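Dear support,

I submitted the protein below through the web form. The confirmation email said the job was done, but the results page showed an empty box. After a refresh the structure appeared. I'm attaching both so you can tell me whether what I see now is the final result or a partial one.
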Amino acid sequence: MSEALPNRARGEVAIRLAGRDYVLRPTFQALCEIETRTGQGIVALARRTAAGDVGVTETAAIVTAGLRAAGEPATFDTVGRLILETGLASCVPAVTAFLTAALGGDAGQGGTGQGGTGDGA
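What the results page shows now:
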């Protein structure tokens, strides 16, 4: 079985849940789903997540939306169980990278660290 590899040009980020690698894809629909589920704007949520101030409900909402955008048949409850099995603290770096990528920054995670590739004005 082949592992999912993120396409960094699209802002995709890898996350490991319960011993399996997945891809989170930031799309407009995913961001809308995250804002609706959490009741927070994506920028404020990204700031809180980067500061480590994120709960399991928010993390599950973010990961579920990112997985669905990448084509995974994810449900909120299943993702929540995977996060608890993996450990919330282990998921936060990938979630932070995902939100950073969604906002147009460098996702980090092995990238060059060079942002501003001319993909928007």
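Response: this is the final, complete result; the empty box was a page-load delay. Residues 8-102 form one domain.
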